[in-house]
Amino acid sequence: MFAFRDERASVEVAFTDRFGGVSAGPYAELSLTAQDPGDQPEVDRNRELVARALGEDVRGVVSMRQVHGADVVRVDPATWGTESPPAAEPEADALVTRTPGWVLVARAADCVPVLLADPDEGVVAAVHAGRAGLVAGVVPQAMAALAELGARRLTAWVGPRVCGRCYEVPARMREAVAGRHPEAWAETSWGTPALDIGAGVLAQLRAGGAEVVDVARCTVEDTDFYSFRRQGPRSGRHAGLVWVRP
Questions:
Q1: What's the confidence (pLDDT) of residue 82?
Q2: Structural domain of 47
Q3: By C-alpha distance, which of 56, 55, 91, 87 is closest to 73?
Q4: CATH of the domain at 224
Q5: 3-class state of residue 39 by DSSP
Q6: Cα separation of 99 and 217, whole Å?
Q7: Euclidean distance between CA atoms 45 and 43, whole angstroms
Q8: How far is C-alpha 92 from the chain's CA centre?
Q9: How far apart, in whole angstroms, are the C-alpha atoms of residue 178 and residue 194?
Q10: DSSP assignment letter at 195
């Protein structure tokens, strides 16, 4: 269920793999997104299993409708008017909160899941960063939003994602992205143009002063994870999870 777990003070983080759930077929076993309405009961059950495995203090799980942008949504019961997460997912690619007990989720299947926290201040963020998100600056935007909530010293956990050896792109796309983020320039293992989105994200985090914990496993090469590049549209989603214990 968990490929990685860590904790700092009252903050806990985890990256899921694809095991320990109830999804079947190409989504087996722990997919955390529904590709069609018929999949939703299994995904809901998988979310319950993950929440239970995290601990009895989990009050709710908050995910987002990811759109490859740079919008950041603050998860705040006072703003939302409820002590439970709303049923509708906010449209965003980053969630931030200082509310204990609410688990923030960033789903991925080749893109980069990034978890951010200032454990001393008790503020956290979950970020989904793909190629478009790297260019749009979703990670710096999330870091800025955490600073507004009082964060001073950030730790970032960067999860499993497609590596530069496997993420083939057209030459013009590589030029456009690497022109803005040189660290993302890459070449596949078979010698064609590629991008290393993880390297670009790591550079953004370090430029912002974050301490980085890199959980680098290639989702294309490692079948413990879902991969759109390897599986196509019928790929499930694993996730990065972060929360503040009450």
A1: 66
A2: 2-244
A3: 91
A4: 3.60.140.10
A5: helix
A6: 30
A7: 5
A8: 12
A9: 10
A10: E
Report whether 30 contacts 94 (CB < 8 A): no
Number of domains, the chain:
1
Q: From CA 26, how far away is CA 60, in angstroms rounded?
A: 27
Which burial class, exposed, middle or buried, applies to 29 when counting CB atoms under 10 A from its CB (0-12, 13-18, 19+)?
middle
The structure tokens listed for 104 are 């923030």
Q: Which residue has the tokens 């709710």?
A: 60
Mean pLDDT of the chain: 95
Report the pLDDT averaged over residues 131-142. Answer: 98
User: 186 has which bridge partners?
Assistant: 194
Residue 239: the pLDDT is 98
Q: What is the pLDDT of residues 174-231, one digit of tens each?
A: 999 999 999 999 999 999 999 999 999 999 999 999 999 999 999 999 999 999 999 9
Report the alpha-carbon angle 119-124-126, nearest 5. Answer: 140
- Put simply, whether the predicted model's pTM sits higher than 0.85 gets the answer yes
Per the listing, tokens 């990034």 go with: 114
**What residues contact residue 179 under an 8 Å CB cut-off, 6+ apart?**
none
Dist. CA 115–CA 158, nearest whole Å: 7
Distance CA 106, CA 63 (A): 7
The mean pLDDT value for 148-161 works out to 97
Instruction: Quote the pLDDT of residue 11.
Output: 97
Alpha-carbon span 161 to 219, nearest angstrom: 5
Nearest to 103 by CA among 155, 177, 47, 22: 47
Task: Quote the pLDDT of residue 76.
Answer: 85
pLDDT digits (tens, 9 = 90+) for 97-106: 999 999 999 9
